Amino acid sequence: MTLLDVRGLTVRTADGRTLVDDLSLTVDSGERLGLIGESGSGKSLTTLAILGLLPDGMTATGSVDLAGTQIVGATEKRLAAVRGRDAAVVFQEPLTALDPLMRVGRQIAEPLARRTCLKGAALREAVRGALTQVRLPEPERIARAFPHEISGGQRQRVALAMALACAPRLLIADEPTTALDVSVQAEMLDLIDSLVRERKMSVLFVSHDLAVVARVTDRALVMKDGRAVEEGAVHDLVRLPREEYTKALVASARRLESALDLRSAR
Ligand SMILES: Nc1ncnc2c1ncn2[C@@H]1O[C@H](COP(=O)(O)OP(=O)(O)OP(=O)(O)O)[C@@H](O)[C@H]1O
Questions:
Q1: Is residue 34 part of a domain?
Q2: E-assigned strands of the chain?
Q3: What is the pLDDT of residues 208-248, one digit of tens each?
Q4: Residue limits of the ABC transporter domain (predicted)?
């Protein structure tokens, strides 16, 4: 069953520049699609358009059907009902999702309480469970902390716990590991991978890095200058890229991998 069906999505600025151009993609229930392309290729604007979160002044045309709701042109009320329940997002910078003045536990409690009607001790226990699920040690301490009191990797886990709190059918992860230290990137990818598998969730995973996309998704769509240039199984894209642009992405992922191999051999 198709969960997300994007057809002819076009995003324009107020002065008429086209930043996403006639893009179409689908994500089935339980499927994981990678969206890959260099910086500026339109990946983030695509994810924002899917959630109805485009910056002021930008307009979307075309169709974005998310679990039966048409997102393009939807009212804010309708969008609020969809976000969190049908799709939730983890951004590159966890601080965009977290309120700096609110303790971490309360930030997770709010969406949990909305979904489950839990209160008091039962809600506290559910928050603890949400923090444990994203493999945070000492969940009581983390729940009492403010965002600046925990590490960047821990903040990204908290953002993931918040995104998962309402059990969304689609997780959109927009460069979720790019801002993290290399040492914690792989752990975060493995965590996302195992949590979405356990929950049979669909994923739209955005990255400029083909090696990262290959770790979490089975199929990928390559974007350049706001357009889709190639789409296929990740395995095929890596082995037999058709487009010059995809070949360049594969070559740079290989260069990076061999540089890392050399580093670890030293
Ligand atoms: N608020 C904005 N106003 C004007 N132009 C924008 C805005 N946000 C993005 N753009 C432009 O739209 C294009 C696509 O940006 P987008 O952020 O979607 O790319 P991206 O592939 O996600 O890259 P990155 O990973 O660097 O964010 C770029 O040329 C960018 O400069």
A1: yes
A2: 2-12, 18-28, 32-36, 59-66, 69-70, 87-90, 170-174, 202-207, 219-224, 227-233
A3: 988 888 889 989 999 999 999 999 999 898 888 999 999 98
A4: 4-250
Rounded distance from Cα 210 to ligand 1 centre (Å): 19
Name the residue range of residue 22's domain. Answer: 2-97+169-265
Among protein residues, the one whose CA lies closest to atom 31 of ligand 1: 40
In a domain, 157, yes or no: no
* 3-state percent breakdown (helix, strand, coil) of the chain, nearest 5: 45, 25, 30
Ligand 1 contacts (CB < 6 A) are: 13, 19, 37, 39-45, 55, 208
- How confident is the model over 83-134, as pLDDT tens digits? 888 999 999 888 888 999 999 999 999 888 887 888 999 999 999 999 999 9
What is the CATH number for 55?
A: 3.40.50.300
Structurally, the chain folds into a number of domains equal to: 1
- Does residue 109 belong to any structural domain of this protein? no
Distance CA 199, CA 166 (A): 12
Q: At a CB cut-off of 8 Å and minimum separation 6, what does 236 contact? A: none
By most ligand atoms within 8 Å of CB, the mutation choice from 19, 38, 41 for ligand 1 is 19
Q: Which of 35, 44, 210 to mutate to test the pocket of ligand 1 (most atoms within 8 A of CB)?
A: 44
> Is 9 inside any structural domain?
yes
Of 9, 11, 17, 43, the one to substitute when testing ligand 1's pocket (max ligand atoms within 8 A of C-beta) is 43
